[in-house]
Design a protein that fits this description.
about 60 residues, mainly alpha
Length: about 60
């Protein structure tokens, strides 16, 4: 039978590796999300101001 400690060490290293990879990928995807949100927020504001202007123009 294998030494349980050595198995635990291996598992820990795998977990560490996974966590590092996951954290990196999460960081990248969060950065992408933030950028996408910023872009969509900017265009959304433009759209709503245009929409309001159009609505005001209809009353004339």
């Amino acid at each position: 039978m294998r030494d349980p400690d050595s198995y635990f060490m291996e598992e820990n290293q795998l977990e560490l590796l996974f966590n590092q990879t996951f954290r990196y990928q999460t960081g990248v995807s969060i950065a992408c999300l933030a950028t996408a949100l910023r872009i969509s927020n900017g265009s959304h504001e433009k759209y709503t101001t245009q929409f309001k202007q159009n609505r005001v123009g209809e009353g004339d």
